[in-house]
Amino acid sequence: MALPMVAIVGRPNVGKSTLFNRVVGQRISIVEDVPGVTRDRIYAKTDWNGREFHVIDTGGIEISGADEMANLIRVQAQLAIDEADVIVFLVDGRAGLTEADREVAEMLRRSRKPVVLGVNKLDHPKHHPAAYEFYELGFGDPIPLSSEHGGGTGDLLDEVVRLLPPGDDDLYDEDVIRAALIGRPNVGKSSLINALLGQERVMVSDVAGTTRDAIDSPLESDGQRYVLIDTAGLRRRGKVYENIERYSVLRALRAIERTDVALIVLDGGEGITEQDKRVAGYAVEAGRACAFLVNKWDVVEKDDKTAHQFEKRIRDEFPFMRWAPVLFVSAKTRQRVHRILPLAREVAENHAMRIATSTFNTVLQDAAASVPPPSDRGRRLKLLYGTQVAVKPPTFALFVNDSELMHFSYERYLENRLRQAFGFEGTPIRLLIRTRS
What we know:
There is one protein chain. It contains eleven helices and 17 strands. The protein has helices at 16-24, 68-83, 99-111, 153-163, 189-197, 245-258, 274-285, 306-317, 340-351, 357-370, 408-422; strands at residues 5-9, 42-48, 51-57, 86-92, 115-120, 143-144, 177-182, 215-221, 224-230, 261-267, 289-295, 326-328, 375-376, 379-380, 383-390, 395-400, 430-435. A hairpin with a 2-residue loop joins β13 and β14 (379-380). The protein is globular, with a radius of gyration of 25 Å.
């Protein structure tokens, strides 16, 4: 199931980004001693005591007397609050309780989500009594901490993990192929699912963001069981959610974690956007099988070269996904819709493919004989042996005499030889280069 979400919120300049970087263990968010540096939501995956979850860093919330930029930041923070399973409300222990803190607290009370109150910038235990005045906010025991030095963050994370929803076992058998339709809003994901199911299972509208939650739709075709996951997802509340482009990425990310195959839906009429690339990049990073569905192909003026030209544009815009097949479809006219499930099945089988060690090593030897490994300062790379260590995606450990001699171009050559030998259409391949001790 999708990992739970934890949002870090608070007024500007209380140390949210510093805490975010501390929790995820690397410097991702920009940290400046200036209010308003973090404007959008930033996501990262982390774990504490064996429990994995996503952390969302948000911009500082300003309510009274806010300008246009502050209002946009507040909208983004509200979206993160709505998506979160647990909220970390961070306040500044040095500055004490402010009216801005009270306004944020009221906003969080309306969310009805579990809240952990962290009192930041209390670097020494002698300063911990400063946390007591924050009892007034009504969120239970304030936890004194220092984002910068790490003190008290373990206590905070213990409470966060305690409040996370229980992890669910997978709802579906291993032989069920889970296929998520992902993409930016209004490219026709729900319409495609309805076309596949033959019924109006998912609400469809021309308004971007109609689908309110990820919806699972089981079906069976040619003896194979599938679960289709519609992921447009948006909890709308008036005009608060006008900026939904970035929000759709978060919904897609959660669906990607639950799926075997990511069907990346593009709008044939509008072409390719940066948002499309971002969503596809998440699927590749997660190691999922992928295929492109170019929807609304019925509205495209075309000749005998149009499909070829559009596919070339996809290859140019997604150079890291040359292995992903492309299918031109129309949910409205049902053009080629019948080919979507067989395509999902094919890439799912490639995603789970196992190669015998002897066969893999034969391909390696042939590849090295055709193009000798690179050398550096008189030392030549030697491919000693390799074996497949995982599936979904196919992952191979390749043992060499010195991993530092492996050039990225030769690694790419080896991947191409593997694809020539075994296909692997629709799935990323991972090569783990190891120096034999």
